[in-house]
Design brief:
This protein is mainly alpha-helical. About 70% of the residues lie in helices and about 0% in strands. It contains twelve helices and no strands. The model has no long low-confidence stretch (mean pLDDT about 90).
Length: about 200
């Protein structure tokens, strides 16, 4: 039995720590590991799922295309961990795929894609993220606002202010908007009061 066979067997162990270690060691077998690790995104243990994403990120370039294909999965858990792995790889192709994910019908994917693009500070994502400021889902709007704050592009200031005005009575969203605006422009110019003559 090869070491790879042992690792494959360890991936179905009842002990989550054995599965976790196997995820780490699979990095040494990138060709075989990619599909195994992507399938691990449905593992019942979040630590194992997280390690699978980290291992795929370590494999890097070779895992981008299979991860992008997995983004099309109907399983929200799979999509979340795919985005996590793609974000850690942080390549131009990855940015394009995450921008495409902003248009997903699934609110969780839109939310995670915006978050990932914000953390990666992808300037080309600003316009599509601005569109999410009017999303039906509160979590998506909040995630988009935080992402725009992380990217720090001044063209997001007015759309964030508009979203903040539209959020009547939503103190939590307004806090997020104010924080994002401060990140983008820490010292906004105050409008000068007109002097009376």
């Amino acid at each position: 039995m090869t070491e790879l066979d042992t690792l494959k067997e360890n991936m179905i162990s009842e002990d989550h720590e054995v599965r976790l270690e196997a995820c780490k060691e699979l990095v040494d077998y990138p060709t075989d590991a990619i599909d195994i690790l992507i399938n691990t995104f449905t593992d019942k243990n979040p630590l194992v799922r997280f390690q699978a994403a980290k291992s795929l990120a370590s494999i890097g370039q070779d895992s981008i295309k299979p991860l992008i294909s997995a983004l099309k999965s109907d399983n929200i858990l799979v999509q979340k961990y795919v985005i996590l792995a793609l974000k850690d790889i942080g390549d131009d192709t990855v940015a394009k795929e995450l921008i495409n994910a902003l248009g997903s019908e699934d609110f969780a994917i839109r939310k995670f894609a915006a978050k990932a693009l914000g953390e990666m500070e992808v300037k080309s994502a600003v316009d599509p993220i601005i569109e999410l400021l009017t999303d039906d889902d509160w979590g998506v709007r909040t995630s988009a606002t935080k992402a725009l704050g992380d990217i720090k592009d001044k063209k997001a200031i007015d759309p964030i202010k508009k979203a903040r005005r539209a959020a009547t009575g939503d103190k939590d969203f307004k806090k997020v908007a104010n924080k994002a605006l401060k990140k983008i422009d820490p010292k906004p110019k105050k409008k000068k009061a007109k002097s009376k003559k």
